[in-house]
Amino acid sequence: MAVHFPGVLTFQxxxxxxxxxxxxxxxxxHSGMDYPTDFETVVPENVLRGMEDSFVDELYAxxxxxxxxxxxxxxxxxxxxxxxxxxxxxxxMIEGNWPFQVQPTEKTIMGHGLIWKSCPxxxxxxxxxxxxxxxxxxxxxxWKPYHTYLxxxxxxxxxxxxxxxxxxxxxxxxxxxxxxxxAIGNARADVVLGDRxxxxxxxxxxxxxxxxxxxxxxxxxxxxxxxxAELVRRYGRPEHxxxxxxxxxNRALYMNERRVEPTRHFSHLKADLxxxxxxxxxxxxxxxxxxxxxx
Length: 295
Description:
Layout: E1 2-5, E2 9-13, E3 24-28, H1 45-49, H2 56-60, E4 69-73, E5 94-95, H3 106-109, E6 130-131, H4 132-161, E7 164-172, E8 191-194, H5 203-215, E9 220-222, H6 230-235, E10 242-250, E11 255-256, E12 261-262, H7 266-294
Parallel strand pairs: 3-4, 3-7, 5-6, 7-10, 8-9
Antiparallel strand pairs: 1-2, 2-4, 8-10, 11-12
C-alpha cells in the first residue's frame, strides 16, 4: 500500500498478504525538500538545504520491498519539524496570544523547536512574527498527518505481531558545529545510534546494530552527541515491546555537503543499509516467533 500527499508525505507498507511482512517501520522526517510557498523565510534556500537530511529517504527506501513500512516527509524541517512535539513552541514568534499550552524544550531555546526561530549563521528565520493561523496551518496540514500515519502503522503492526520496531533515520554533518558538542575533535563518528539513554528500545536491539555496523568497519557511538528526539521519545516503549531507535549517518559517507550531491560511495552505503535491514528483519522475525512459541 502506498499513500502520497504531494508536498506533505509519502507512506508505504508491504501488502497485508505479503508473505514476508515484518513488524518494522522506518521513517525519514528531515529529508524533505519541497518548500511551501507560504514559508516566507529570510534565510536563503541554499542555506536551508544544508539543514536537510538529504538523500536519507533514498538510502532506506528498499525497506518496503523487504516487508517493512516506510514514511517520509516531503516538507523541510525548517518549515515545521515532525521530530518535535507540537507544543515545543517559542510563543515570542507568534503574533497574538497563542491559545494552546506550550512546553518549550532546549531545542526551542536553541531556536530549533517545532518551528524554527533561527538558522545557523542567521539569527532570524522571519522578518515578522507568524500569525496564529499560519502556525496552526503548519501543524494541521504537515505535522499531524505525519504523526497520524506513523502512529497508525505502529499500532497496526503491534496488533499483528505483538511487537514493533521503529527506526528513525537521520544524517549528521561530517564536522561538529558550535550547536552540538560531542564530536571527537572536529570529526564525528560514522554512525550514531540513539535510544534516549536506554529508554526507547531494548538494549539487545541497539547493541545488535552497533555490533553489525562495527563489523562492517564503521565507527559507531551511542547517544553521543545524538540520543533521539520527539519521534523516538513518543513511540518507544520497550517495556511494552515497542522499540524505537534513531540512526544518524555521517554525510561524508555518501554525499558532498557543499554541493548537496551523492558521491560515488552512495551505492555502497545503500547496499550496506539493505543488508542491515535484512539483519533487522531476521532479528524481529525471530523475536516474534519466539514470543508466539512461548505463549
